[in-house]
Fold this protein.
Amino acid sequence: MTDAEALIETMGRDARDAATRLAATPTAVKAGALRAAAAAMRDRQGAILAANATDMANGAANGLSPAMLDRLRLDPARVEGVAAALEAVAALPDPVGEIIKAWTQPNGLRFERVRVPLGVVGIVYESRPNVTADAGALCLMAGNACILRGGSEAIESSRAIHAALLDGLRAAGLPETAIQLVPTPDRAAVGAMLGAAGLIDIIIPRGGKSLVARVQAEARVPVLAHLDGINHVYIDKAADPAKARAIAVNAKLRRTGVCGAMETLLIDRAAPERVAKDVVAALLDGGCELRVTPELLPFDARLLAADAEDWDTEYLDAVLSVARVDGVDGAMAHIARHGSHHTDAIVTEDAATAETFLAGVDSAIVLHNASTQFADGGEFGFGAEIGISTGRLHARGPVALEGLTTYKTLVRGSGQVRPG
């Protein structure tokens, strides 16, 4: 057994013991731990920002892109946002013990399908130190223990945030092993987590394509993940011009490095040319590089010609591919061919066209007249998210408390036996 395997085995066994206790922990105790952790986050703000400054300096020296540095960066407002998210999760309804369905069979047996925790959740993530708090909070409130393995680029920030979470656990009298942070940046620890069947119940990767692909290829533990966020906004011929412009600019440029950022803009060929030109100009003026189909090139000298790879690229930067399509059917065909089943939006004032798009696009999140940047658990009212799942099993879209539970069936009888 390697050192990494021994480390993860010890952490896994400790997490399993903690998970057994958490499954029976009252809601008020779990919520109290999160509120205490939020207070500790505020008390420790100086230490957290100092740790983040170290990570930012190291990231810049190591050549992290501006988008990745933005993911990594913390400031007082972002620290307060993380603390507020802990409190928001604490205020959410506890899913553990919820009766999903109840029924009685003709023989008098009474059935209840009840939510229960998953057990031990492993989260592997990159860059964004707030994930340490979001993942720890959501797992705790859903009655799960978790093992967190953050990226090396955010290691100091993650340690500082984890210290606040431990303060919260101690204040509530809960085991510190309920939220564990892998102490080493050694990549072998990730491999050990992926092979920890029987100790870790599910792995959730949150990061770039190479990380998620590795997890999906190597894991011997069930995986809940998305691989790409190739998200589209389709501007229909019946779009309101002001909405089209505002939504397109926000979907791309609010934060280019998040998984909900638009990567391809589709414009109906039947849309007025002035609307198309206005949206294109707004994106260019906002500092976005646009790679477009040939018919759009005459709009502006700053436009570049797209190639075949652009339609299948998650830029996570101020780069966007743009195409004109033949109506909503053309848009849906393009999304079906090039999308990643993550988040796609339509801008239109035609209700029937909107419903066609909402029903016909097979993505985890589909929006009408709203920015793709709303692909976030907090914006859904979930307090936070542990990631966005684009699969079809267990959970889809932002994964929050409910997505971190499974269920069991309770059966109550009065002496029934099954006839031979």
In short: The CA atoms of residues 134 and 384 lie 6 Å apart. The chain has 13 helices and 16 strands.
